[in-house]
Amino acid sequence: MVDSKQQWKAWLYLAPAIVLLLIFTVWPIINTVRISFLEGYNAMSAVNGAHFKFGFGNFKKVVEYRGFATCLKNTMLLCVLTVPISTFLALLIAVCLNSIKPLNRLLQTIYFLPYVTNSIAIGMVFAAMFKIVGFSVEGIEQSTSLGIVNNILAVFGAGPVNWMNQGSSYGANIAVMTIYIVWNALPFKILILLGGLQSVNKQYYDAAKVDGTSKVRVFFRITVPLLSPMIAYVVITGFIGGFKEYTSIIGLFGENMGPVGSGADKPLNTMVGFIYDSIELHQGRAGAAALILFGIILVVTLLNLYVSKKRVHY
Length: 314
Prior knowledge:
Helices cover 68% and strands 3% of the residues. By secondary structure, the protein is mainly alpha-helical. The protein has a domain at 67-279: MetI-like (MetI-like fold, Orthogonal Bundle), CATH 1.10.3720. Strands 1-2 form a two-stranded antiparallel sheet.
């Protein structure tokens, strides 16, 4: 505790951070809520002295927008697919890493590298792996690159799949995005779960070994319950991050947010993408969409916390 006579010094030291938080975090949140209820709000018009009616018109326009259902569907689908898969894989990898003593630090570093790599750059690499590319040599000879993934499939006798090119299916596009997002989400989850594993009392495992308990039973009866607080944490943060998904689609498909020449208007757009598209000309609509997304994330988070109270063992 800081002496009451010296509290002014503590506030003085905290003042720069508090001022920055108020300017760049608190005020933008308050302003977003404000403009979301100003119908047809536009920043340029507001500067020129225009007045806007207070109401729910922006929310109505967001819900009625023809692409809103698509954005919401894509966002929900990616969350439902990526969060369980990435959490389960991260748990398995963390258990394996925890049991490997030689090169343990090196392997941890390798698995953590995607977390500190630019998402757009990773997306471009994944796009190159899945895309079928045609090119010419000296302007004469035509040749085609099926991509690394299709070449691997060919080794097992499978034909090439149109993952991302013109004419590719929605399912193939979602599969590529799911693989990318899961791979990109693994490092952080592995780090959290591995830290939890290293803090588990080894006596539980020693007792199970004496009783001759199988490794599968040890995993589900000892490891998972003892790691349940960390698992709940990575699931909740995973859903929050999943609902904010945007950069992965830009990295894979570019600003079109879909296969080139698909003809559809951003068929793989998400809620965050919808907000970005509205910011330039329809700030009120973008604010309303942001509040809708906040409400969805809040509901999902509360549901996760409710389930965690019954399933998590502290």
